[in-house]
């Protein structure tokens, strides 16, 4: 398969997930779309220069995360809590939620509370927890993406979940 075909398949396969990741991180629909577009543009430029990519998923997420970090350096975005109060979550961001029913509403409220807690989570834990549980990446993929050992990533995920569990328990007391 040519790199062009692989790129097109990667676009079809990962564009929506990258958008959800970017939206969750920057809390702005248009900015998330711009970041994903720039991610694919930079990836294509990388390929046009004669480079090759063995695994597109970690490469795309790494590129997107670099762009997100650059965006945070430019300007601090609104908090996730404020975004949830003022804006609707984009359609398709959480496809498992179905309208109607008390259980769905309770799940949605719990998800909003956890999302708010993620905003206050230490950054080294927040990033890996989001990549693992929001984006569904495996620890090995996250390790490749962040150029860290898999064990380090696994420990950060564990500590992040422990941190989050402790905050959830405190809120429920």
What does this structure look like?
By secondary structure, the chain is mainly α. The chain has helices at residues 3-26, 29-48, 56-74, 80-86, 102-120, 123-134, 139-146, 150-172. Helix 1 packs parallel to helix 3 (56-74), helix 2 crosses helix 3 (56-74) and helix 3 (56-74) packs across helix 7.
Short description:
The chain has 173 residues and is mainly alpha-helical. 76% of the residues lie in helices and 0% in strands.
Radius of gyration: 17 Å
Write down the secondary-structure element order: HHHHHHHH
Helix content: over 70%
Shape: globular
User: What's the pLDDT, averaged over the residues?
Assistant: 78
Distance between the termini: 56 Å
How would you sum up the major sheet?
none
What is the tally of beta strands? 0
List the main descriptive attributes of the protein structure presented here:
8 helices; 2 domains; mainly alpha; single chain; 173 residues; Arc Repressor Mutant, subunit A
Which SSEs are present, and which pair or pack?
Layout: H1 3-26, H2 29-48, H3 56-74, H4 80-86, H5 102-120, H6 123-134, H7 139-146, H8 150-172
